[in-house]
Amino acid sequence: MKIPILCIISMAILLISCGNVKQEPLSEVIEYGLTVATEQTLFLAKEVSRREGQLPRTYEDNEIKTSSYRAWISGFFPGVLWYLYENNPMDEIRKYAEMYTERVEEAKKITNNHDLGFMLYCSFGNGYRLTGNSHYLDVMKTGAQSLVTRYDKTVLAIKSWESSSEWQFPVIIDNMMNLEFLLFMAKESQNESYRNISDNHARTTLKNHFRSDYSSYHVVSYDTITGIPHAKNTHQGYADSSAWARGQAWGLYGYTMMYRETNRSEYLEQARGVASFIMNHPNMPVDKVPYWDFNAPDIPNTVRDASAAAIIASALIELSQLDNSIEAPKYLEYAKEQIRSLTSSTYLAKPGTNGGFILRHSTGNYNKNSEVDVPLTYADYYYVEALLRLKKLQNEN
Ligand code: GLY
């Protein structure tokens, strides 16, 4: 029996429209994500509270793994708590936010790596924004002084890691994320040099870290006499020439933030270029949660990095509000799709599982087989940040 063509078309239209009808309203997705995030985070906060000085890191082999303030991830868990407190000002959330923020305080004296922005701005920065506690500002003042000891006037950048036989002055793309902290402290302490350092670092990175397609190297090491790059490598990516997923996410977030803070058009151009690289990449999966490296040789049989998706989503939401071009709505749509994916049962933890972490399927350092396909606090931090950014936009409209 032949089925008339009109009948087939009507059935197709019906199926498509059923698909649309079935999609939950975004506001419900956001609220569900925030509810699960709150429940999970309170569980985790309680579990780790008895481990003196420790901060949640990941959940592996049915065990919650923690770190001290020294780890680069130390500020994210207090940051998640502060964001959740901002969304729902419950005394219990604030109590834990304050407790875990205190555990990071000693990081303010660190001078042997660049991670102070992650450590202090996510924790003390959010805490100060929400409570006005002047002690939090004092901690950040000391931290900013520690961070700028790593700035070099010849290279015009902040050194990420200590020198090694391979690298004289290594700078990683992740370091862009420390600049928001320095720019904030420039305003708070009327310190123009912090602003210049941030601007110089961003310009140096823009010049040397990016390829013509706007993908970025992970590590660029500079000759300390000439200030010129002597090596361009990877540390956490598949290859020197590959596009490590989280590195691309840090770059996108970093230049979006730099444009917000400086209004310089070259930073907007850079953010647009990185966004286009990510959004149009042929190896981006349909759910828009990238594999750990865009050039991993075993795609699609390799692991994802939900942390990269969360960072990209948060950055794209911001970029969509800063950019006036016709691309802006596309950034927002893409971020919404990422948030829908991350809030699906594939990535969002079933309440009471996942050790109390929010998201599943992130990858820390694939090359060292360290934290592969696990929950990670920075995935949770940028996921909750993205949910709040979307919620704010929804409330404004
Ligand atoms: N900043 C370290 C990382 O992204 O893994």
From TrEMBL:
GO terms for molecular function: chondroitin hydrolase activity. It holds the Pfam family Glyco_hydro_88. The keyword Hydrolase applies. The active site is at 115 (nucleophile), 174 (proton donor). SUPFAM superfamilies: Six-hairpin glycosidases. PROSITE patterns: PROKAR_LIPOPROTEIN. InterPro entries: 6-hairpin_glycosidase_sf, 6hp_glycosidase-like_sf, Glyco_hydro_88, UG_Glycosaminoglycan_Hydrolase. Keywords: Hydrolase. The keyword Hydrolase applies. GO terms for biological process: polysaccharide catabolic process. Substrate binds at residues 115, 174, 234, 246, 250. Gene3D superfamilies: 1.50.10.10. Belongs to the glycosyl hydrolase 88 family. This is Glucuronyl hydrolase. It comes from Bacteroides intestinalis.
